[in-house]
Amino acid sequence: MSPITHFFVGWSVANAGHMDRKDRFLITAAGIAPDIDGFGIIADILTRNTQHPLHWWDRFHHVFGHNLGFGIAIVIVALCLGTRRWFAACLAFVVFHLHLLGDLLGARGPEGYQWPI
Predict the structure, then answer these.
(1) Which is deepest, 28, 47, 62, 68, by most CB within 10 Å?
(2) How far is the C-alpha of 76 from the C-alpha of 67, rounded, in Å?
(3) pTM (2 decimals)?
(4) Spatial distance between the Cα atoms of 94 and 34, rounded to a whole number of angstroms
(5) For residues 18 and 87, what is the distance between their CA atoms, to the nearest angstrom?
(6) What is the DSSP letter of 17?
(7) Nearby residues of 52 by Cβ (< 8 Å), 6 or more positions away
């Protein structure tokens, strides 16, 4: 799925409850955060015509940010920074899993195959 779609899913969940701006930001960011490993595509594009191209996006996208360890890290950040700590952390964990579900249902690789999680 598009990062924009992940953003709107997180934003929708964050605006479902009565929270302050900081908690809404944390929950919305939790919906986009798993795609942080997608920035490897920049290195791939810059080095694709060299003798030793980097394949960071091909190899690592959907690896580093799409696992339970990263989900727990998101919860810890929300617990440390949130105003309504437990509520924000729980919703951040839900949004993280909605991100994974969205990728499972709607993400395809550059060759058109379904990405495994």
Answers:
(1) 28
(2) 15
(3) 0.82
(4) 13
(5) 10
(6) S
(7) none
